[in-house]
User: What shape does this take?
Amino acid sequence: MSPHITSKLPNVGTTIFTVMSGLANQHNAINLGQGFPDYQMNEELMNMVSEVMQKGWNQYVPMQGYMPLRESIAEKIESLYQTRINADTQITITPGGTYAIYTALTSILQPGDEVIIFEPGYDSYIPNVEINGAVPVLIDLRFPEYKIDWTGVRKKISRKTKVIMLNSPHNPTGAVLSEEDIRQLKDIVKDTGIFIVSDEVYEHLIFDGIPHQSILRYPELLERSFVCFSFGKTYNCTGWKLGYCISSPSSMTEFRKVHQFNCFCCHTPSQVALAEFLKNKDAYLSLNGIMQEKRDYFIELMGSTKFDLLNSSGSYFICAKYNRISDEADKDFAIRVTKEHGVATIPVSVFYKAGTDNKVIRFCFSKKKETLETAVERLIKI
Ligand SMILES: Cc1ncc(COP(=O)(O)O)c(C=O)c1O
Assistant: This one.
């Protein structure tokens, strides 16, 4: 008899990001699919990491993360959201935002628990829930604004509801939560045992002067929340895979039990450099403006195509309808545009478990001007 794995995730295959990036390479296409910048990250931060490595910061730090970095994060949160966080008991440095979300869900969930997940949604949430034997309860965001239908949420809450997953600014749509959303959320969870896992990796990519409705602004929500962040998204270095999670002290104790036997601690030199670099407020406060410029430039260029862009108030992404071009299924359309026109995108149906196809594709605009220009020159011809 040979060893056999009974898959914990029988329905999971290769993600569409890998597929589309592979197709983009194969056909020499411009990749507006996967969410990463194609320009260099901050030079000063790169130099700082290299300097601290030379100085010998190359061994383990404590499993919670390098304390001066946690202190810098706590200071940043107080200045942004007027909430005091205890750097010792409420912050853990993680290898990226995705890991923080996985660890939070794994800390909370027992088999049979239900987790409310909005769709379209980031693709790691459902497998993270299922691997813990819990049940995703899926709710569609209202198309085409991609707003949360709170009446629908109330109907889906049951005695088994353990977590509501939030993501603002939102991937794939660029939708953001409003104060009214937070009011509804507070009302729904009060006097319940429901946790919130809030994916805020695009915290610093929010446009048009809209304030980011971080859970960190609301101490009564933070008590029942795990809030997840990514340095990769903030500092244009998605390959660093470094982030952090914030929760109440008692929740963080459980989070660290899972974390310490999975990763233990994260890359030391990056943490030491970031502890200093985080004090430079401009480096993160300027991001909204830089990314908004890219969004606006992309919108202007796309005006000459037959795509109809939807609204994007944040993130790296903007979605577009293509019904003036084709009535193909979005996957077929995205594959054909990559192969025949040399621009890779992501079909939004892949962000729905049931593959709901509103004939919408997602563009990533966190790219150099020239990249956006060349891509649109090609898209104009469709
Ligand atoms: C909504 C969302 N959450 C989390 C992540 C992942 O963050 P990290 O690379 O830090 O794991 C991404 C990356 O695309 C994302 O879009």
